[in-house]
């Protein structure tokens, strides 16, 4: 065996970190030292190859562990030929499918490295396997047995987890289910989950700021300003977007086993009710609600609801930042609004731009009146389009379930007769796909309806009035909050910057159509220079 220029490496792996508490690690280290000393080789103790808590069955020790780094070094030629890798047994190297495990062993051996198993003292290298081919067969048998053991254990563990999940959903089991990670705002006390108050405070603050319309960077900065320690929660700006998606916020635990998903309700203490969580997901779905990085965020633009009345394209804001004043604000005329079509040089018959300031003031003033907001929230029609849509979707789901039931009965009869028409099978699969899609659509509509219902409390003009001064002063926090109020209140805002009937660049009025979430329509006629406005239901002449 040509090992005169090589080094001896020792590799340890435990699928459960608790196994490290035993003496097998010390025993293998001592074996590696004595094996190297007996052959006049050097044990490279500077390179400690240990994978604790990484499964060889799922190949995590290859994907994210020390063995993966070693194999990469072998591929790159950084492990000298003639080196030796000492392992407790071949099952420490891999418990993957035998053909894959053997390929990994071959990768090491073909690089001129000898693998030594401490459990039985066997050596695997090209020379020895060439002289004794049955050792290759023996290694394959060891790998087959290791894989079968792990596969059996994996199936047993998965079956146990499924059984516990089914028991939880049925209400028969209320113990712990060890699968996946747990939220960092809870701790286990005497077998029960408890909230950690100081961590819950941080999570609630992050959610509140998100609801108010703040972007992740701004919300995170505000957390730092208030002295919150977010390190133990792992909350960074981008983590806030991940945080609001966690079902653990409503006390649920999501588990997936072999492609089958389980939602364990009330597994953890709740931070949000189901309605609050659904409303949060609706906000998350409004991607355009996030503020850009402009120094003065627009309260009406950049949120996907404001459009040009002439060409129908979205309205966008343009701040003349080189005109900014010493206090960081801009004059009214330096905060412009225009349609995307005009901005891209074509497509809008009217075009041009105007100051957004008088429009902002008019809408803020209109919404600061309690009666105006109450009228905006009155539903159009007896039920509303969304409620009608939910009823239609429910009927569609019932119809599909009935069709699938009839097909299933026909298939059962055909199976009894030994005949399963292929057309029936295809129809059943097609109906199952349609039913899955229909249920998803119904769930989304019900969630939207629940969110709207939760907001159908008496409108509070005080919220608008309290923020009006901050909006006028161009304060970022106040304007971010008003952006969210705009999203919650209006479905669409249409701006006619030269009037409904365009009067050219000398037009005296800006006409604004407000369409509320409830479907109510209100027109505002805003004087371009004075900012005075008047409201009406009818379209202005």
From TrEMBL:
Positions in coiled-coil regions = 425-455
Keyword Coiled coil attached: yes
Give the stretches traversing the membrane.
Answer: none
**Domain (Resolvase/invertase-type recombinase catalytic): residue spans on this chain:** 8-173
KW DNA-binding (keyword) present: yes
In Pfam terms, one family for this protein is Resolvase
Protein's organism:
Pseudomonas putida (Arthrobacter siderocapsulatus)
The upper taxonomy is: Bacteria, Pseudomonadati, Pseudomonadota, Gammaproteobacteria, Pseudomonadales
Molecular function via GO: DNA binding; DNA strand exchange activity
Name of protein: Recombinase family protein
Q: Tell me the InterPro entries matching this sequence.
A: Resolv_N (IPR006119), Resolvase-like_N_sf (IPR036162), SSR_resolvase (IPR050639)
Highest taxon, organism lineage = Bacteria
Q: Which UniProt keywords apply?
A: Coiled coil, DNA recombination, DNA-binding
